[in-house]
Design brief:
mainly alpha; 6 helices; 218 residues; 0% strand; single chain; elongated
Length: 218
């Protein structure tokens, strides 16, 4: 009888021990599962953040290149015949000088439309970077935008002269026109392009800033 009781007590203790071990294993598995899930989530977050940064940097650099191309296109002194178009109503009651001046305005208007689109795409990336990182992206972009406004002013001033080809000599400011022409037109003869150099310096600063956010693109 004592042997039977001892055996029963042993089996009860063994069953209790097995139950405890099972609970420990289940709890351990849950902890391990939670840890693996936490590590996986952390890895996913890092990958997601890295992909977000990559996409933002890549898209902004592409937009910057297109913006620079658009500025260069605006400053191209050669205007093709297909750019200098006139609407039928614009051809009426106009002298040849007036027609030529209006056609030139239309050409620059078309060029500037492309520049507007390029700037919008660039600033979308710049503003997103400023919102995410607060790192001065907008301040760097503003350096280029100031030069763009300078270019716009030079073109507007030159086009006003185009509309007044017979301006009296005492009202002409040839030195001023020459200064504006250097901003408006990039040189073809290899001479110094002071405006172009200033613009490219500003563009390269913004490019370097974005590349520093994702060195793998370098």
């Amino acid at each position: 009888m004592d042997l039977y009781c001892a055996a029963a007590q042993f089996l009860f203790s063994l069953d209790k021990t097995v139950s405890i071990v099972k609970d420990i294993i289940v709890a351990g598995a849950a902890i391990i599962g939670a840890f693996v899930a936490w590590k996986g989530l952390g890895t996913w977050n890092r990958q997601h953040q890295g992909q977000t940064t990559y996409n933002l940097v890549r898209n902004t650099l592409i937009a910057l290149a297109q913006y620079c191309d658009a500025i260069d296109h605006v400053r191209n002194p050669w205007i093709s015949s297909h750019e200098m178009v006139l609407m039928d109503q614009e051809k009426q009651r106009k002298t040849e000088d007036e027609k030529r001046g209006l056609a030139t305005e239309n050409a620059y208007s078309s060029r500037w439309k492309r520049l507007d689109e390029a700037r919008s795409a660039l600033m979308e990336g710049v503003n997103e970077a400023e919102a995410l990182w607060g790192d001065g992206s907008r301040k760097l972009a503003e350096s280029m935008l100031r030069l763009e406004r300078e270019l716009s002013g030079a073109i507007s001033e030159q086009l006003r002269y185009e509309r007044m080809p017979n301006l009296p000599f005492n009202l002409r400011n040839d030195a001023r026109r020459a200064e504006m022409d250097k901003i408006m037109n990039r040189p073809f003869d290899g001479s110094t392009d002071e405006f172009g150099a200033r613009f490219m310096e500003a563009a390269k600063a913004l490019e370097a800033h974005f590349r520093s956010k994702y060195p793998k693109l370098n």
